[in-house]
Amino acid sequence: RRVSTNEWRKTVADPQVCVVVGGASGIGAATAAVLAAAGHRVVVADLDADGVTTAIVTGGGSGIGAALVRALVAEGAYVVCADLDLDAASSVAAAAVGPGTAVARRVDVTSAAEVRAAVDDVVADHGRIDLMFNNAGISLLGDTEDLTLDQWNAIIDVNLRGVVHGVHAVYPQMIAQGGGHIVNTASMGGLMAAGLLTSYVMTKHAVVGLSLALRTEAASRHVGVTVVCPAAVDTPILDKGELGPVRGRDYFLKGQGIKRPVDPDHLARKVLAAVAANRAMVVEPVQARIAWRLGR
Ligand code: NAD
Fold it and tell me: Which atom from ligand 1 is nearest to the alpha carbon of 108?
């Protein structure tokens, strides 16, 4: 089983215990078996201690986050489906099918304390946090002159501070445990500009910058960082054009030169593949990026 750093310190300090590092397979496993047969107390220490990857997905109650929860459970992970909306998170967690487990938790990412408590509980129960998906986000579509200061602050709180809270809570823990991976959901709007989305684009550019900068220094600590920059994805956020008469779905599809929004489950599979390959960025679909670059 996975153990906490403190428990590990006590274990290796115990003169009665034999510790076999790399003991889950091959020569290490054979060594552990011989020692155990000889009557020694043996602790098998291995990266693959129990085979269960632990993950937290914020905004897991809907859209891309829900798809990430489904994909992770299908891969056998233990996943905390964290969302402001506990009912939505519970439905997603209950419906996820696979060898893994999903548990719902109400987490408001604008609260550093709530994000930290979710991370601390996973570490207390499982010894480590392998994957952190800072995915929760809101959009604000409309004329910038109509934005109130409260709206500017609200989108900064969720889309930017929410990601900072996640990074701040997991990064030192991941360094201490010897590795992990942080995935931040930005947007195509984090790579390019789009009118009527000024505040959203600002937060997403910041998330891209945070992610790419962190990635360069985290690599030497065995922590991977991936930033996800999708064009329009088929989720409820597309219909949340809170401001002005412009309907989000039409605006996004036309602006990005794509006929159909991306399927969230397809995107989630791409994201997990990018994590496995430790890629810096996921941009999906490629034709949207090209169209946007050409200024269509
Ligand atoms: P969605 O609206 O379907 O899901 C967002 C989820 O985040 C909801 O369940 C909501 O309850 C939750 N949430 C909102 N505020 C929260 C808070 N303070 N704390 C915790 N949870 C909170 O939207 P989605 O499309 O799945 O969006 C997920 C992420 O993907 C967002 O960061 C969004 O900006 C980004 N994104 C979406 C698209 C798209 O077209 N759908 C494109 C690019 C980027």
Answer: 19
CA distances from 204 to 21, 58, 89 (A): 42, 16, 24
Quickly name the fold that domain 54-293 has: Rossmann fold (3.40.50)
CB atoms within 10 A of CB 248: 20
Give the closest residue (by CA) to ligand 1 atom 44: 187
Closest CA to 50 of 76, 12, 26: 76
* Nearest ligand 1 atom, CA 186: 44
Phi, psi of 125 (to 5 degrees): -85, -35
Tens-digit pLDDT profile for residues 55-86: 999 999 999 999 999 999 999 999 999 999 99
85 lines ligand 1 (CB under 6 A): yes
- Single-letter residue type at 41: R
ipTM: 0.99
Distance CA 174, CA 184 (A): 15
Intervals of CATH 3.40.50.720 along the chain: 54-293
Query: Structure pTM?
Result: 0.85
Active site residue 171: no
Residue 39 and residue 115 in contact, taking contact as beta carbons nearer than 8 Å: no
What φ, ψ does residue 56 adopt, rounded to 5°? -125, 135
Q: Give backbone dihedrals phi and psi of 3, rounded to 5 degrees, phi first.
A: -125, 160
> Can you read off the two tokens belonging to residue 267?
């995107």
